[in-house]
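To: structure desk
From: M.T.
Subject: fold request, one chain
Message: Could you run this one when you get a chance? Sequence is below, nothing fancy, just the single chain.
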Amino acid sequence: MGIADIAKRTGCAVTAELGPPKGTNLEGFLKQAAFLKGRVHGVNVTDGQAGLMKLGSLAACHKLKVSGIEPILQITCRDRNRIALQSDLLSASVLGIENVLVLTGDPVTIGDHPTAKPVFDLDAGELMATVKKLGAGLDLTDHKLDGAARFSIGAAMNPCVEDLETEISKTRRKIESGADFFQTQGVFDPARFERFITRYHKERFTVPILAGIILVKSVKMAVFMNEKIPGIVIPPQVIARFDGKVDGRPEATALAADLIRALKPYVQGFHLMALGWEDLVPDIVDRAGIQPSF
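Reply: Done. Structure tokens follow.
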């Protein structure tokens, strides 16, 4: 079932995120996925995140599907032209994948192939519109398809940026292009998030939002995200929770549950980014009271 439909039906869709391996050994990937089975409605598989060459999202999504986990195909504009993007989407539909998250893609210069040539034949809005068109049975040049490819389309959102009006403008364009649900950048400041939601509702937007919850592992990680990742705002009192902690796992679990409870009145679900600590997700889900109904 589409994530957007789940969010509207249950009022709280829960998704998580996994990165595929750099190679063909899926043992670790499937081990982490097992912690999420039955605890979330869907699992994103990243597509060349941070410009790193890894196993493709499409193959990894298929492996999740056959293991009984609903996949969400991340697809970026960075690496493929419009022919390849449409072809991959048709392939995903044939493999039973029902949800996609459309992204621009991180710069190749930060990854492990910094001299690679980026493509960006379509931008994220254009790609979302293309996905909608495939669902109507047509390709991007209006040739009729022998079988449509229908998806619930996800888009990224950065609600805690300083420039609220620019983010609202980007959000409007994504909705106009066909976004069915949003997954946000990690949220650590509920008051700042509420500021965005107030503006969001003022625009009469109704697309479901899944708030991003990143598991913080240490003070060092929190400071790095604050300084280097656009849209991440971690208040000093949150960072202080990890001071002196040799093992950050208990505090990461407690913080995630606290944030979910604080944000729950404003959103239609949550996107959990455990970053290798997927074994903590069941406890977070239970403590926050968001056990999914299927």
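Reply (cont.): The longest strand covers residues 13-18. Let me know if you need anything else for the meeting.
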